[in-house]
């Protein structure tokens, strides 16, 4: 119906003493709360925005993406109705990824990395475009250092394998004494780390740690789990270090602490910094301050 015809019919109805039902104007969407962060803790009643909706936590939660059944309650659309940027629009293109890792093992696929991003959507998706690219470069630089340029899937020193079972843990080492060696892009090791990562990701890695070396998406997810939720021997998570401006050096501290920082192994620190500088150049952003730890 044209606007002119609609107006004429409304006027006729009023003149005839009829009730006119006027279509309601679309309700304005609520303001969006602060964007959800996979590294933040939310208690019952806290509200965060995600993908164009506000979500209220039903109880204590960390890392569970809004929309997870039984954890978050949908409070309806917010803002303009346009979804917030999702991890599918990763700031590193496949061509740039291949440029960063020209000799990578075929196991470490770009598609596997993109599939893993849904587990931690705040990763490389927080702050300005520059910060997003700096965080992606920082993660991939540390990953490159840990794996020899994404060449190694598992820890190369097999003599270390039996040493990663902490028998004091109540759950023990059900996969075997020597099953929890380093795997994946950040070389996840120790039974307690496999337990914690598996619990966070909803995967039983304590009983099947080999899945990290079989499934590229799972391998990448374990790396993102550490990056986004663990501060290790550092003062903050690597994600927070990059998003809050603490700098690349703090990501090194969160991964290896004084083993490399404070003069522990300056050559290893320099190796990580060199890779970060190269990757930020590929992505076309400055490195930011505080490169060293």
Describe this structure in words.
There is one protein chain. With 293 residues, the chain is mainly α. The protein has a single domain (86-293), classed as Orthogonal Bundle (Lysozyme). It has ten helices and three strands, in the order αβββααααααααα. The protein has a three-stranded antiparallel beta sheet, with no helix packed on it. A hairpin with a 2-residue loop joins strand 1 and strand 2. Keywords: Disulfide bond, Hydrolase, Plant defense, Signal.
Radius of gyration, in angstroms, nearest whole number:
24 Å
Beta-strand percent range: 5-15%
Spell out the helices and strands N to C. Answer: HEEEHHHHHHHHH
- How would you characterize the largest beta sheet? 3 strands, antiparallel
| CATH overall fold name | Lysozyme
Number of strands: 3
What structural class do the secondary elements suggest?
A: mainly alpha
On the 0 to 100 scale, the average pLDDT is 85
User: What percentage of residues falls in helices of 4 or more residues?
Assistant: 25-40%
Helix tally equals: 10
Distance between the termini: 68 Å
**In CATH's first tier, which class applies?**
Mainly Alpha
Gross morphology:
globular
> Do you know the CATH architecture?
Orthogonal Bundle
Strands in their spatial order, largest beta sheet: 1-2-3
Number of domains: 1
Unreliable sequence segments: 1-28, 81-88
Task: Give a brief description.
The chain has 293 residues and is mainly α. A hairpin with a 2-residue loop joins strand 1 and strand 2. It is globular.
């Amino acid at each position: 119906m044209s606007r002119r015809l609609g107006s004429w019919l409304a006027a006729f109805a009023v003149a005839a003493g009829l009730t006119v039902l006027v279509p309601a104007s679309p309700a304005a969407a609520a303001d969006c709360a602060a964007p959800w962060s996979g590294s933040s803790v939310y208690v019952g009643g806290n509200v965060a925005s995600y993908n164009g909706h506000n979500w209220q936590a039903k109880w204590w939660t960390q890392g569970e993406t809004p929309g997870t059944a039984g954890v978050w309650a949908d409070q309806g659309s917010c803002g303009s109705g346009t979804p917030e940027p999702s991890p599918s629009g990763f700031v590193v293109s496949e061509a740039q990824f291949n440029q960063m890792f020209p000799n990578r093992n075929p196991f470490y696929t770009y598609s596997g990395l993109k599939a893993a991003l849904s587990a931690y959507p705040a990763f490389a998706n927080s702050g300005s475009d520059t910060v997003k690219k700096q965080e992606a470069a920082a993660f991939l630089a540390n990953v490159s250092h840990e794996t020899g340029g994404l060449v190694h899937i598992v820890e190369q020193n097999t003599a270390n394998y039996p040493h990663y079972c902490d028998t004091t843990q109540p759950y023990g080492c059900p996969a075997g004494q020597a099953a929890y060696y380093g795997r994946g892009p950040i070389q996840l090791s120790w039974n307690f780390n496999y337990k914690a990562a598996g619990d966070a990701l909803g995967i039983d890695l304590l009983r099947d740690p080999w899945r990290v070396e079989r499934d590229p998406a799972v391998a990448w997810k374990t790396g993102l789990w550490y990056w986004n939720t663990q501060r290790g021997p550092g003062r903050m998570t690597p994600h927070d270090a990059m998003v809050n401006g603490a700098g690349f050096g703090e990501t090194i501290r969160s991964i290896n602490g004084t083993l490399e920082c404070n003069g522990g192994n300056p050559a290893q620190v320099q190796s990580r910094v060199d890779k970060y500088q190269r990757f930020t150049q590929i992505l076309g952003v400055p490195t930011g301050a505080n490169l060293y730890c």
